[in-house]
Amino acid sequence: MAEFRLTREVASTADEVWRRVTDWRSHAAQVPLTRLASVTSGETAVGTVFVVRSGVGPVGFDDPMEVVRWEPPARDRPGRCRLEKRGRVITGWAEIEVSPRGTGAVVVWAEDLRLRPLPRALDPLVARVGRGVFGRALDGLLRDGAGAAGTAGTAEARGTGDTGDTPSR
Question: HEC string of 82-141?
Answer without folding.
Answer: EEEEECCCEEEEEEEEEEEECCEEEEEEEEEEEECCCCHHHHHHHHHHHHHHHHHHHHHH
